[in-house]
């Protein structure tokens, strides 16, 4: 009997329909106060949050760049400009990286810029709740960005504990210097009331106020109210600095005054520029969250094996795969991100085959031993490091991202040789981007692919996150004993024939 030739890609299978609008329980959905109302990421329009301080109707009047600013306002003006950029859709890290005046500040002022910007974004919901009864009519239209200055002022008073005189005066003067002269009186009145009433108003808020309504409902449905509160509380804290090292972990832990977390991951408290630390210029380590280091590690790459790293930039996982001895092809569809990956590998003295292309359409010249798909996702597991996510994502994004994730995995599985393995990972706490994708893959694979269960030895300190089917569902609050980690879903698949 003639044996039917195996299709070259999974996409030739009858693709299962991903039920994007159907909330699925993870195992058994954890009991929550909202369990009687199913979360629907696509169709529940009532849960879509309004964009907080969305882009103004027309561009705000720019202040005169030639007009000299008082020294103590320079950093605050930069923070304001960064927050405006974030509200217009720019990622916080990018806004910080491209601001032409930020690098002109000394290290102390640069740290203040990052601290106040991230604090304002993390606690935005609470701060808006505090300001609401103090502002009868919020600035709108061309003056909408003035709300950001009020948020900055409130964050300084209530969270950074800046002196009342400095906080009030700098807020009023920043209003004037940014072209909102008519709102200086409002700013003065609001800030002075905050000095008297702000602490009491802030005490009536909590970390859940910072979550968009759709995200809060989603997390409470899947993980329960107590876990949602714990994740939200942890997300309000400044993150530690996690480092992956190439060499001796013990030696570098001592040199960097860090502690060993797991594998090649070290952790230390640091709020400055990591590039100023020992060993950075020499390329002996790179910045990478301890949980983010796990997907590449779980591929179990050995010397000489061929590996494809999809969506590879900025290159932390690529570096891990090269360090393990893999012959790596790193793919990214964004030229600037690929250039950044190239620069990072150069600093680390690593090399890989870099490809500018779409992983959903790419096809290698020959089957490979291993594939890492660290897929684009909502990044809701990283809000402690990326607080701009809180104001950037809406429920509708999940469906679009899920379709992209499906296309990447469905195409890439066809590149594996028999016995090859793929690790699929997302830094998302949304099961639609993790468990649902893997379930759909297994349902449609007709026995050609299966989950390769992650063992306790392989998971190490993340053993507590192993699911019943051998995947990892990492919740940040499960690791408060080590200071928390990014949230992740990780699954390993095996090509059976």
Give the gist of this structure:
With 497 residues, this protein is α/β, with parallel strands linked by helices. It is 37% helix and 13% strand.
Write structural notes for this entry.
This protein has 497 residues and is α/β, with parallel strands linked by helices. Mean pLDDT is 87; it is low at 1-38 and 42-71. The strands form two sheets. Strands 5, 6, 7, 8, 9, 10, 11 and 12 form an eight-stranded mixed sheet that branches. A four-stranded antiparallel sheet has the order 2-3-1-4, with helices on one face. Helix 12 (316-323) links the parallel strand 5 and strand 6 (327-332). Helices cover 37% and strands 13% of the residues. The two termini are 19 Å apart.
Broad structural category: alpha/beta
Number of β-strand runs: 12
Q: What is the general shape?
A: globular
Number of helices: 17
Q: How much helical structure, as a percent, in the residues? A: 25-40%
Distance between the termini: 19 Å
Cα Rg: 24 Å
- Average residue pLDDT: 87
Which ranges are low-confidence, i.e. pLDDT below 50, for 5 or more consecutive residues?
1-38, 42-71
Beta-strand percent range: 5-15%
Oligomer: single chain
Order of helices and strands: HHHHHHHHHEHEEEHEHEHEEHHEHEHEE
């Amino acid at each position: 009997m003639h044996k039917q030739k195996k299709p070259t890609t999974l996409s030739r299978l009858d693709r299962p329909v991903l039920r994007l609008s159907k909330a699925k329980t993870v195992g058994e959905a954890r009991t929550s106060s909202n369990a009687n109302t199913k979360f629907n990421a696509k169709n529940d329009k009532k849960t879509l949050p309004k964009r907080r301080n969305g882009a103004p109707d027309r561009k705000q009047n720019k202040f005169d760049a030639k007009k000299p600013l008082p020294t103590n306002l320079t950093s605050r003006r930069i923070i304001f400009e960064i927050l405006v950029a974030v509200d217009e859709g720019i990622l916080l890290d990018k806004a910080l990286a491209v601001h032409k005046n930020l690098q002109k500040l000394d290290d102390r002022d640069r740290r203040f810029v990052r601290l106040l910007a991230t604090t304002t974004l993390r606690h935005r919901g609470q701060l808006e709740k505090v300001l609401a009864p103090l502002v009868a009519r919020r600035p709108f239209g061309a003056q909408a960005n003035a709300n950001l200055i009020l948020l900055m002022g409130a964050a300084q008073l209530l969270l950074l504990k800046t002196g009342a005189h400095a906080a009030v005066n700098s807020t009023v003067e920043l209003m004037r210097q940014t072209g909102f002269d008519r709102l200086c009186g409002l700013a003065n009145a609001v800030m002075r009331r905050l000095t008297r009433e702000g602490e009491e108003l802030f005490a009536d808020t909590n970390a859940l106020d910072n979550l968009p309504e759709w995200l809060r409902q989603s997390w409470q449905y899947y993980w329960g109210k107590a876990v949602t509160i714990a994740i939200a509380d942890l997300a309000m804290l400044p993150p530690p600095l996690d480092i992956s090292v190439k060499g001796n972990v013990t030696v570098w832990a001592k040199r960097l005054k860090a502690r060993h977390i797991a594998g090649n991951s070290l952790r230390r408290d640091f709020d400055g520029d990591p590039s100023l630390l020992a060993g950075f210029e020499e390329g002996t380590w790179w910045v990478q969250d301890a949980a983010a280091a796990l997907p590449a590690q779980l591929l179990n790459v050995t010397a000489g094996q061929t590996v494809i790293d999809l969506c590879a930039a900025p290159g932390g996982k690529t570096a891990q795969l090269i360090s393990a001895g893999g012959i790596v092809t790193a793919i990214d569809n964004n030229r600037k991100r690929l250039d950044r990956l190239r620069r990072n590998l150069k600093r680390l003295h690593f090399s890989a085959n870099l490809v500018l292309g779409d992983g959903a359409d790419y096809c290698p010249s020959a089957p490979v031993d291993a594939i890492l798909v660290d897929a684009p996702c909502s990044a809701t597991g990283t809000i402690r490091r990326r607080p701009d996510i809180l104001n950037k994502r809406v429920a509708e994004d999940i469906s679009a991202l899920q379709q992209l994730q499906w296309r990447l995995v469905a195409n890439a599985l066809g590149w594996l040789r028999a016995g090859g393995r793929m690790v699929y990972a997302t830094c998302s706490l949304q099961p639609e981007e993790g468990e649902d994708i893997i379930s759909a893959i297994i349902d449609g694979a007709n026995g050609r692919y299966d989950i390769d269960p992650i063992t306790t030895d392989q998971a190490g300190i993340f053993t507590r996150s192993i699911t019943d089917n051998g995947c990892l569902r990492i919740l940040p609050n499960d690791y408060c004993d080590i200071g928390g980690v990014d949230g992740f879903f990780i699954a390993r698949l095996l090509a059976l024939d």
